[in-house]
Amino acid sequence: MNWQLMWDSLPRMIGGLSLTLQLIVGSLALGALVAFGVALLRLSGNRVVETLAAAYVFVFRGTPLLVQIFLVYYGLGQFEFIRDSILWPFLREPYWCAILALTLNTGAYTSEVLRGAILSVPQGQVEAARACGMSRALAFRRIVLPVAIRQMLPAYGNEVILMVKATSLASTITLMEVTGIARRMIAQTFAVFELFIVAGAIYLVLNFIATRLIKFAEWRLTPYLRARA
Amino acid sequence: MLELLSFGPNGWGGQLLMGTAMTVAVAVSAFAFGILVGSLGASAKLSHSMALNVVADIYTTVVRGIPELLVIYLLFFGGSSVATSIAAAFGYDGRVDLNAFTIGVLAVGLISGAYSTEVIRGAVQSVPFGQIEAARACGMSRWLILRRVLVPQTLRFALPGLGNVWQLTLKDTALVSVTALAELMRVTHLAAGATRQPFLFYGTAAVLYLLLTTVSTALFNRAEISANRGVRRA
């Protein structure tokens, strides 16, 4: 075991951490927006819209993320109207392609989690809110959504961990995040196990922090459980 | 454009089909290997040995916490040297080279095994202990109890979870394409590069993967129905 090499590789790996974090935070934030929209569409009551939203979820959950990334990065550039559009400066960049693919992927999974959580809100609570004179929108904003978000947190925690790991696939489209740097250094030094341990440890720490954050959010959102204990 | 997907001399249909077959082969072997690893991991977690508990815990935590791609790189770049040193320990002094298929199955199987461990552990724990006691009272030996009581019931409880693990495993095989094994993703990549029709080919790959996941979901549902045939529904 070459400890010196492991120690020396740390600064370079940490250098890739910023890109990894950008991909995680960016795609989770945008993915949450997509998920919110899609979950609402799936519950809209309009058959056509519901089928379209369900098809989106079906496709993105049923195919490997790598296919989705390649489809966006290599596939979209094939069409002339995309190359001529104002989006091309973004879609030309592997960075934005990775964010787009990760966003669409996590959006599909999260929308299912959110949909389940919204459906789990007891009907009586909505009725009570309506009886108090709240409009449908107000009841959704003040009653259904807060309860649903609290409900979905454990399942969403799993999705966050999956996304932390999924950002490593950005290395396949030339992005130099932690996995990309690890791969390049392995090819240069052939110190497979040392570099694997350093890179793996970085991801374990990231996932540890992510699970703590979700736990903290859960703790903050369930004050009624604390008071009793 | 569609003739590119045909089975003729100018089409990639035959190669895509071979790639799909290879993907299924890798996924099935890795899933089976994963269930083997998962059964060992679950028995380690349920054993009374502190050392086995810790080892199994480290295995599941680490493998589930780091990216799948890193695990595949680890075996791709490091698998042969480990195999060589293991062979050296048994008195063979030559280089052992693992082929891409073996590396893919080992890597995806180890990932799959970490998830299977948790599923199988949960399933074993949901078999009521009274049934084991009853079997013992009837005079069954440990192996007979395992074969006639524990395993069939565990399978019933584990099937939904194993269905999820299968989906993960099937999709993880796409990552094995970085080792240049000619599975669906790799063939698609080559075809997309050669024909300059990336959208067509990656789209086709997406459809093929969807087909595989849909068909296997249906198969798992049938298996669940047949495993639960003796159970009265609530």
Description:
The complex is a heterodimer of chains A (229) and B (234). Chain A is an all-alpha fold. Chain A has a domain at 18-175: MetI-like fold (Orthogonal Bundle), CATH 1.10.3720. Helix content of chain A is 83%, strand content 0%. Chain A is built from 11 helices and no strands. Chain A has helices at 3-42, 47-62, 65-75, 80-84, 88-91, 94-119, 123-131, 136-166, 178-189, 192-221, 223-228. Chain A is flat. Chain B has 234 residues and is mainly α. Chain B has a domain at 23-184: MetI-like (MetI-like fold, Orthogonal Bundle). Chain B contains 8 helices and no strands. Chain B is globular, with a radius of gyration of 21 Å. At the A-B interface, helix 2, helix 3, helix 8, helix 9 and helix 10 of A face helix 2, helix 3, helix 7 and helix 8 of B.
Which features does this protein show?
heterodimer; A: 229 residues; mainly alpha; MetI-like fold; B: 234 residues
Write the layout of secondary structure elements.
The complex is a heterodimer of chains A (229) and B (234).
Chain A: H1 3-42, H2 47-62, H3 65-75, H4 80-84, H5 88-91, H6 94-119, H7 123-131, H8 136-166, H9 178-189, H10 192-221, H11 223-228
Helix pairs in contact in A: 1-2, 1-6, 1-9, 1-10, 2-6, 3-6, 6-8, 7-8, 8-10, 9-10
Chain B: H1 13-46, H2 50-65, H3 68-89, H4 100-125, H5 129-137, H6 142-172, H7 184-195, H8 198-227
Helix pairs in contact in B: 1-2, 1-4, 1-6, 1-7, 2-4, 3-4, 4-6, 5-6, 6-8, 7-8
